[in-house]
Design a protein that fits this description.
single chain; 276 residues; mainly alpha; three-stranded antiparallel β-sheet; two-stranded parallel sheet; 13 helices; 8% strand; binds zinc ion; ATP-binding; Znf_C2H2_sf
């Protein structure tokens, strides 16, 4: 009966896999290893060059700032402050009474806004209703809005850094769609997105251009030396000779060995899952 789930090779490590396999079988009626093999294939497909495109919904900064502020306002209207007070009472109050600092590093407390309201949340109900309390609330709200806007800018920067300023060209094409004017959504976002996706699926040329890499040719090619990217170490190496030296270096070998060991380990685990 074991081969319905996977083939048992007697390793205790696989006991948990065995339990998981039974669970998968009960839920889906399918062999676990078969599902794992399928998942691995579709993940591989996604990473294959040319298999992915990115649609980046962008908005003019000032308009985006207004939208973010409006979102904070609607959160406030929906009872954000009361929610923060409740959480604060349940979690941080105990910590503070125990002499520990408030904890903003876990789960809900990482949510934008929590830190910004700390001083206000520390007030008594009476103090909160005073002029000083109200003023502090106003400042907290402004700080939360600012943190939200800053976070949005960081996200944009992250996308640029990762996809447009990446030294290798093996990043998916990224298409910018402008959401600034919502009244033109269908024209500027929806139909463009459909056009991009359709030509991608049909493998026909798309009239809409993806964003260009922000790394200039000069930068790629300083003194005839090219940028090299070591996928193993995730490092940029300027110049072919330096790259060649790197590939033979102790440091590179060590990372490579470690990666191979991990790959082998997961391959072994998969093999013991085979069903016949
Ligand atoms: Zn390396």
């Amino acid at each position: 009966m074991g081969s319905v789930f996977f083939e048992v090779k007697g390793e205790l490590d696989n006991f948990y896999l065995f339990l998981r396999s039974i669970e998968v079988w009960l839920k889906t009626g399918r062999c676990h290893s078969e599902i794992l093999a399928e998942q691995k294939m579709s993940e591989g497909e996604l990473r294959r060059p040319g298999a992915t495109i990115i649609l980046w919904l962008k908005c003019e900064q000032t308009v985006h700032d207004e939208r973010l502020n409006a979102r904070v306002d609607s959160m406030l209207k929906e009872g954000l402050i009361q929610e923060l007070l409740d959480f604060h009472a349940r979690h941080n109050m105990h910590r503070i009474q125990d002499g520990k600092p408030p904890d903003y590093t876990k789960g809900i407390f990482q949510t934008l806004g929590f830190k910004e309201f700390h001083e206000y949340l520390m007030l008594s109900e009476e103090e909160r209703n005073s002029e000083v309390g109200k003023k502090l609330l106003g400042i907290s709200i402004e700080n939360m809005k600012m943190a939200t806007r800053r976070y949005a800018r960081r996200q944009n920067k992250m996308i640029r850094g990762r996809f447009l300023q990446h030294p290798t060209r093996q990043v998916p094409p990224i298409y910018e769609l402008d959401t600034t004017d919502v009244s033109r959504w269908d024209e500027l976002v929806k139909s463009k997105a459909i056009e991009i996706i359709e030509s991608f699926l049909k493998e026909s040329p798309c009239p809409i251009e993806p964003l260009k890499s922000e790394i200039s040719e000069e930068k790629r090619n300083i003194d005839g030396n090219s940028y090299n990217y070591c996928d193993v170490c995730n490092r940029v190496l300027l110049g072919d000779d330096i790259y060649a030296i790197h590939l033979k270096s102790f440091r590179h070998m060590r990372v490579l060995k470690k990666k191979k060991r991990l790959e082998k380990k997961s391959k072994n685990a998969e093999e013991s899952l085979k069903c016949d």
